[in-house]
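Sequence only, no structure available. Ideas?
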Amino acid sequence: MKHINRYAIFAKQTARICGRPYSFATALAIIVVWLLTGPFFDYSDTWQLVINTGTTIITFLMVFLIQNTQNRDTEAIQLKLDELIRATQGAHNALLDLEELEQENLQVFKEKYLALGKAARVQLSEGLTDTGTPETK
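Reply:
I predicted one. C-alpha cells follow.
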C-alpha cells in the first residue's frame, strides 16, 4: 500500500493557497480592519498584542510549511538535474549528487569549473569558440 504523507500534502496545498493574490489581499484586509479598529480600542496594548500575536503565530507556522515545500522542490530539481547528467553522453557522473558533498569537496569541483570558464573566455578573446568539451580539445 502506498504511504501517504499527509503533512507533505497539507504543506503543499497551504503553500499554494498562501502564494495566491487573494491570500495576500485577505492578509492586507485583516491589517486594514485592525488599523481601523485602533481608535475604538484607544490603541491599547491589548489591541497591539492581538496583531503581534497573530502575525507571530502565522509566521512561525509558515516557516515550517515553506521549508517543507522548498526542500521537496529542491530535491525534485536535484533529481532532474542528476537524470540529465546521467543521460547525457560525455557528462561526468561524478557530478551526480553534489549537494551531498562536504564544502571542501565542492570547492575542488568549483575550482575545476572556474578554470574551464577562464580558459573559455581566453579562447573567445582569441577569436576561437568556447563550445565543445574540454576533453575533446
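The chain has a mean pLDDT of 88.
Hope that gets you unstuck.
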